[in-house]
Amino acid sequence: MDAWLIGGVKSLLVLFMVLQVSALLLWVERKGSALIQNRYGANRASLFGVLPFNLGLVNTLLADPIKLFTKEDFVPAGADRFIHSLAPFLALFPALITFAAIPFGDSIELAGTTIELVAVDLDVGILYIVATIAMSVYGVVLAGWASNNRWALLGSIRGSAQMISYEVALGLALVSMILTYDTLNLQAMVHAQGNLIFGVLPAWGFIYQPIALAIVFTSGMAESKRVPFDLPEAESELIAGYFTEYSGGKQAAFMLADFAEVVMTAGIVVTLFFGGWQVPYLTAEGWHLPFMDLIPVTGWLVTVMQVGAFTIKLLFFCWLQILVRWTVPRFRYDQLMNLGWKGMIPLALVNLFITALVILLAGEFS
Amino acid sequence: MSELWFYLLAGMTVASAAATVLSPNPVHSALSLVITLFFVAVHYIALGAHLVAALQIIVYAGAVMVLFLFVIMLLNLQPDPDESRLNPVSAIATGAALILTVAIGRLMFAFGSTAPVANLPENFGTTKALAGILFRDHIVAFELTSLLLLVAVVGAVVLAQRDKGETRG
């Protein structure tokens, strides 16, 4: 089959998956926050007011984008018009393309061609993710600068300082994961997590590297600039931070970028620490539960179960981030920086050192 | 890669590099520089060196450019409308650059046709191949470079440190 066609279909599939989950999270966040704060939330949108019952999800998903895209698109006086328009796309783009390297299933056979279920099976997949995260700072910095607004500039300076700080800890934790799996390829990392420890326990990353998991998850949340790390937008201090001067569709792009980053963080955590698309004990021959007989599962069913497992894990970690957002209060700025530079980075360094030492000693004595 | 793609990509790289130099607004030229570095990374990918491309984006387009933007924003440089574009220094610099470009181009055309085309090993550009070169063949140079970077980091910390007598601001 044509390699271009396969690549195009896979890329579109992944892109739409990320966009759909991001849009879904917009509703989940509104309803979830209402659940936590003991109120109804998002129950006003009804289709032309004629439906007797309230389809909250569908109506909100339709009503929110229509509302946002029909609003006035305002550019303040003295703003750099070109960069002001460019910034929302620079914020959204890295968050959307990160998922290209994240595998969502094992390879499948289709008309004699082996297709890896990942948009781009990169040899340096994990570095590609680090690179896209590094690029996500630009949208924030340029949005604040181009708005010609003090609050926006303060927000973007806070944002860039925070994102660069936590990127260091994130990168160091990812290096220890590279050492653990001995590869940079994310599909190979997921394959490695299909093994069993002592024939009983699935060899998922969080068992080997619980500290790295804590660092990656926390830094990922800091990268997405949400509560408790929402200093760059801190509405009680900075109006709305770096996107104060944005309205309508451009503001929607920043919101979508936020949610896409949530999905991205969940994707990284699931792939590196929770087995990616691996279903525990499911191998090519069937479901091999410990101390039990083989349950034969083959063919397409395996693929469907694996993609389903990945989706469920992904949605769980998205939900976990929303839960944290609505239950933990915002940090003070010095607390944020202390946590990053004096807490996470030394911890990541020690974790990396111990990981390297253990691998070296294991190599010596085996 | 087909020749057409190469020339398209090379043209865009040169155009964004030119925008870096010619833009009167410092932030615009910084942004053009990021785009130039990005295009260089695409060249690396086209040559099969995925690792170098990823590192190019992480190190240059990511970290260095963010710091660069910081400097520009905090210094708050405004484009100066009075400044003449044709002062003697820039004229001399432009002339020198043109002569250098022509000389390099002439040399490349002179040797280009006879230069041997290296046969690339099969795993060229992969992480393993690069690591072999870096950590086995050129280990001394690698270690000396990292020492240099360490000295720079220590220097930055010393410079940023407050004097003991100074009160906290």
Q: What structural class should be given to the helix and strand makeup of chain B?
A: mainly alpha
In spatial order, strands of the major sheet of chain A run 1-2
Large-scale geometry of chain B: globular
Query: Beta fraction of the residues of chain A?
Result: under 5%
Enumerate the spans of chain B where pLDDT stays under 50 for 5 or more consecutive residues: none
The H/E string of chain B reads: HHHHHH
Q: Whole-Å distance between the termini of chain B? A: 57 Å
Q: What is the number of helical segments of chain B per DSSP (H or I, 4+ residues)?
A: 6
User: How many helices of chain A does DSSP assign?
Assistant: 13
The CATH topology annotation of chain B reads as: Four Helix Bundle (Hemerythrin (Met), subunit A)
What's the CATH C level of chain B?
A: Mainly Alpha
Percentage of helical residues of chain A?
Answer: 55-70%
Order of helices and strands of chain A: HHHEEHHHHEEHHHHEEHH
What is the subunit organization of this protein?
A: heterodimer
The CATH superfamily of chain B appears as NADH-ubiquinone/plastoquinone oxidoreductase chain 6, subunit NuoJ
Tally of separate domains of chain A: 1
Give a brief outline of the structure.
The complex is a heterodimer of chains A (366) and B (169). Chain A is mainly alpha-helical and 366 residues long. In chain A, 64% of the residues lie in helices and 4% in strands.
Fold topology:
The complex is a heterodimer of chains A (366) and B (169).
Chain A: H1 3-36, H2 56-70, H3 81-97, E1 108-110, E2 113-115, H4 125-135, H5 137-146, H6 150-181, H7 186-192, E3 196-197, E4 201-202, H8 205-208, H9 210-223, H10 235-238, H11 248-273, E5 286-287, E6 295-296, H12 300-327, H13 333-365
Antiparallel strand pairs in A: 1-2, 3-4, 5-6
Helix pairs in contact in A: 1-2, 1-11, 1-12, 2-11, 3-5, 3-11, 4-6, 5-6, 6-9, 6-13, 9-11, 9-13, 11-12
Chain B: H1 3-22, H2 26-46, H3 50-75, H4 88-112, H5 127-137, H6 139-160
Helix pairs in contact in B: 1-2, 2-3
